[in-house]
Design a protein that fits this description.
Blueprint: H1 3-25, H2 33-38, H3 45-56, H4 59-72, H5 75-106, H6 111-119, H7 122-154, H8 161-209, H9 213-223, H10 235-248, H11 253-258, H12 265-296, H13 308-316, H14 319-353, H15 364-385, H16 392-404, H17 407-415, H18 421-437, H19 453-471, H20 477-488
Helix pairs in contact: 1-8, 1-14, 3-8, 3-12, 3-14, 4-7, 4-12, 4-14, 5-10, 5-12, 6-7, 6-17, 7-8, 7-13, 7-14, 7-15, 7-16, 7-18, 8-12, 8-13, 8-14, 8-15, 9-12, 10-16, 13-14, 14-15, 16-19, 18-19
Length: 490
């Protein structure tokens, strides 16, 4: 091991100890299941912002975005945030404001629980929960993959991919199992500060090492001019991914549950003011950094580019600084990974275990049971990550489509009295069938008009929802009015 690698590992070890300490401090031996999974819905504005932002900004941002911009250029920034930066925060409030009320009144925690309560249907709740879990596993796997690739890049391969994956899984698993939602949110508050400041530092270090912003960009223009335009991404793909990304984020199970953890719905209203600026800021820095990396390491193929930030830091930054900036990358991917792990526990407990046993209320053993379930799913995600699937962006494009297809059923549950249970069933089944089958070639790619398959799954689900709602009987008026009365009384 070189002296530089040793310094990097020492810094990362110090960061890990800090994260674990926060998890230990937040540990509650006698925590109820509501306290463990939702921190008793007690977060103020700053912690709520960090919890929601941290759940959204993941390995996609600090690993996947630089890796994609290495291949297609600066347009990666617009590819992700053209609609996401402004539409997702608006949807946070559109959905979160009313869902928060239901959380207080009915102890709603998950999207599937919301749908089940709205139409008093265990079948609908179980069906939607199944699809949410189905996409959470590959989405959670992305953070583990990002951790493995970043460790390998920072240490020039001294820490092999599988060891990096294992370390990230163990660290996140430990503080989540100890502290639950409260521990994860406290850690996320620290991590958000680390990756926002660290993201800027990474950008400045790389820019300075390449002669400044102008010189680094000019080198790209001279050698790889195609990275400065949109020639590598058709407008159909650009448009469809913008829609998918913006619609998916508010119904990520790990983000949705955190929208319900504030002290009041006013806390949620505050975070949408700063959210777009923080997101735009970070994505710009990462897109340019990855694009510049093409002039330094021009021969990376496919998913190899996911290591580009770690490789640039190992080449240009002093060893100790590379360790600090590497901690920023780990902060981003871990802050999402912990929320995904908790979301799995929330779904299993609130959508499967409690509704299907005689004792409907949680008991003391449920917290222990949930911890064991989370441990099992962390192990599953780690094992699957060892198969080294395609680049991170390829994985999330598919999972995001599955989540985005759930948005319109959720909005219908919160705002559309006339919508029937049958229409929601039909919409979910059709949209998820399309999202799973289209990438497998059910319809030749040439017939999709250049749009991503997930775009058509969203469109198909919405069309079926509108048609089915029009031709099926309206739900019971008395029960519907009682449900919607909750919003009038808030």
């Amino acid at each position: 091991m070189s002296a530089a690698t040793l310094q990097i590992l020492i810094v990362l070890a110090a960061y890990t100890i800090g994260v674990m300490l926060l998890g230990f401090i937040s540990y509650r031996k006698q925590a109820t299941i509501t306290d463990f999974l939702m921190a008793n819905r007690e977060f103020n504005y700053f912690v709520l912002f960090a919890a929601v932002f941290g759940a959204n900004i993941s390995a996609v941002t600090l690993v996947g975005v630089p890796g994609l911009s290495y291949h297609i250029g600066w347009v990666t920034w617009a590819y992700f945030v053209t609609t996401w930066a402004w539409l997702s925060p608006l949807l946070y409030y559109t959905i979160g404001n009313r869902a928060y009320v239901l959380g207080k009144r009915y102890d709603v925690t998950t999207i599937s629980e919301l749908l089940g309560k709205r139409w008093e249907s265990k079948g609908l709740q179980a069906l939607s929960a199944s699809f949410l879990l189905f996409y959470l596993i590959p989405y959670m796997m992305v953070g583990i993959i990002g951790g493995g690739r970043t460790f390998a890049g920072l240490t020039h391969g001294f820490i092999p991919y599988w060891v990096g994956c294992l370390l990230v899984t163990l660290i996140v698993g430990a503080y989540v199992l100890l502290g639950g939602m409260r521990g994860a949110a406290w850690v996320n508050t620290f991590q958000t500060a680390v990756f926002l400041i660290g993201g800027l530092a990474i950008f400045l270090v790389i820019a300075y090492s390449l002669g400044g912003f102008g010189a680094a960009t000019s080198a790209v223009v001279d050698k790889y001019p195609e990275l400065m335009n949109r020639s590598k991404i058709p407008w159909q793909k650009f448009f469809s991914y913008g829609i998918i990304c913006a619609l998916a984020v508010p119904v990520f199970p790990n983000v949705f549950s955190r929208l319900l953890t504030g002290k009041s719905s006013k806390e949620l209203k505050k975070i949408i003011l700063i959210y777009p600026f923080a997101g735009l800021f970070l994505f710009v820095l990462m897109a340019y950094s990855g694009m510049w990396g093409h002039t330094v390491f021009p021969a990376l193929k496919g998913a190899e580019s996911d290591q580009i930030l770690g490789m640039l830091l190992a080449k240009f930054a002093p060893a100790w600084m590379a360790g600090v900036l590497g901690a920023a990358i780990f902060s981003a991917l871990m802050s999402t990974l912990d929320s995904q792990l908790l979301a799995i526990g929330q779904i299993l407990m609130k959508d499967y275990i409690l509704p299907n046993r005689k004792e409907k209320t949680a008991n003391k053993s449920d917290t222990t049971r949930t911890r064991l379930v989370l441990l099992a799913f962390a192990i599953i995600a780690f094992v699957v990550a060892l198969y080294k699937p395609a680049g991170i962006i390829k994985v999330v494009e598919w999972a995001f489509g599955g989540f985005a297809s759930m948005l319109f059923p959720v909005i219908a549950a919160l705002y559309w009295k006339r919508c029937s249970k049958g229409a929601i069933f039909a919409s979910i089944l059709v949209s998820q069938f399309l999202n799973i089958s289209l990438p497998l070639g059910l319809i030749p790619a040439a017939k999709l008009g250049g749009f991503l398959p997930a775009f058509w799954s969203i469109v198909g689900g919405l069309v079926i929802l509108l048609i089915a709602a029009a031709i099926t009987p309206a739900p019971d008026k008395q029960k519907t009015d009682e449900f919607f009365l909750s919003f009038a009384e808030k």
